[in-house]
Amino acid sequence: MPELPEVESLAGFLRERAVGRAIVRADITAISALKTYDPPISALTGLLIDDVSRHGKFLDLEASGVHLVIHLARAGWLRWREQQSTGLVRPGKGPIALRLILDDESGFDLTEAGTQKKLAVYVVRTINEVPGIAKLGPDPFLLSPEGFAEILHEAGRVQLKGVLRNQSVIAGIGNAYSDEILHVAKMSPFKPASNLSDDELQELYTAMQETLRDAVERSKGLAAQDLKSEKRSGMRVHGRKGEKCPVCGDTVREVSFADSSLQYCATCQTGGKPLADRRLSKLLK
Prior knowledge:
There is one protein chain. 30% of the residues lie in helices and 20% in strands. By secondary structure, the chain is α+β, with helices and mostly antiparallel strands. It folds into two domains: 4-134, MutM-like, N-terminal (N-terminal domain of MutM-like DNA repair proteins, Alpha-Beta Barrel); 140-284, Orthogonal Bundle (Helicase, Ruva Protein, domain 3), CATH 1.10.8.50. The strands form three sheets. Strands 1-6-7-5 form a four-stranded antiparallel β-sheet, with no helix packed on it. It has a four-stranded antiparallel β-sheet with strand order 2-3-4-8, with helices on one face. The chain has a two-stranded antiparallel ribbon with strand order 9-10. β2 and β3 (58-63) form a beta hairpin. α1 (4-18) runs parallel beside α6 and α5 packs across α6. The protein is elongated, with a radius of gyration of 20 Å. The two termini are 32 Å apart.
């Protein structure tokens, strides 16, 4: 799933290429992806793109007061073309959910792999008409150490992993970067949020800022098609089950859930104690 660094980079990529260009056509080919009806998507035709920005994991193209907002979900992606196809895509056929064409013949397709179709497109007049954006917590880059500490104290006994990836608490961090942040901070993903000392709060805050900023910096200037591979190559533990921890050399372990998993290093994060695999534990009962 694209998270804050990738969406930030996509926003920068589109800002360089799309701002100042008029939208010739925007075609929805996956009807389930369009979550709004007023204004209709046809209202984008002829509008000039003024800005591209990010709200958490949401991408926002603002065109003459109308916002085309995109959430790529788990399996969505944006595929840019300098020479965009002008052909109509048959609804329900193939991975393309939306095709956008600009006045210089460039544009992009939104695609989604797999059977779980969760990619979302909104056309709205004000950004808070998008429910997910209206509920977003603060952006990590706008959080002070004091504000971060307050969030964790208010979370109580909720596990750190859950707090970091809860979009209504902190916007933009998902499964992958929460694993990375906790590895850098040398903390268990299951540690209660309110059970941190002042020093640990500062360590976790610093790990969050440095991990995200480093990922944004690595992604800066990359073409959209290169962002996925850059994300994978920069991971220390996420998605690296069975490989060696780059810090201590221990084997990276995994905890599986119903629809996701987390990766961690027991030596670095849990005092050498393996965490129980929740899915396997249920099978053994």
